[in-house]
Amino acid sequence: MESIGRLWARWSEAIWTGGLKIALVLALVFVARWLGARAITAALNTLQRRFEVSERRTAQIRTLTALLTSILHYTLLIIALLTILSVFGVNLGPILATAGITGLAISFGAQRLVRDLINGFFILLEDQFAVGEYVTIDGISGTVETIGMRITRLRDDEGRLVTIANGDINRVINHSRGDQRVVLEVGIAVSVPLPAAREWLQRTLESFQHPALRAPLNLSGPAALENTRHLFRIEGRVAQRQGTAVQDALREHLLLTAQKEGIPLA
Predict the structure, then answer these.
(1) Cα–Cα separations (whole angstroms), residue 253 to 71, 105, 258, 259
(2) What is the pTM of this model?
(3) Which domains does the chain have, with CATH numbers?
(4) Rounded mean pLDDT of 138-164?
């Protein structure tokens, strides 16, 4: 009984001491996670307040906040697990060596995955494109449907869903940001004097309206030396992907107005 009592006392002391150490480790991990999450949130909020950001950019900042907080959480969890094992007297040397070898083997097999994740992180961070925008990625054009950390999905003009690994994205053309330039050439027969042709065309352009126009149309010319017609160039800025629609509407407006007023187009 005496030996059992001594054994119990020794185990009780070990359990009590180990329990205190584990509680201390968990408390430190909890505090570190709380402080780290607050630091990440504060840093990104400061960045958001310092610069004027759109609603889309705000959503991306929230995504990055969640991602960095998750990385911090799992890092602290691994540290806490290793520390608790050391409290119980587990030799961490073989475990760390095995983990190192395993991690090295996994790293060789997961290089593509890591590249995709890193590139996806920078796509979000740099705001290269967003969901709903029309882009061309390495020669593939379509509307962005989803952006993940590993892959991006586009819906092309034929309705097909194209999945692209983020690590393969090298060249991006974003057609949805900024205005699109449109150019249209119009010829008027020389039977109409040049000043009168220019005056009619300017007046016709001023009467043209379209919701996609970003600024008044600009008229220049004659754009060529020809004996049969006066060739003018019309330039303008329109909303992205609306160039064809605006050109078609402008051609119709010019044609109907010319027919109505007897102006010979050539």
Answers:
(1) 59, 67, 8, 10
(2) 0.51
(3) 2-109 (1.10.287.1260), 125-174 (2.30.30.60), 180-261 (3.30.70.100)
(4) 86
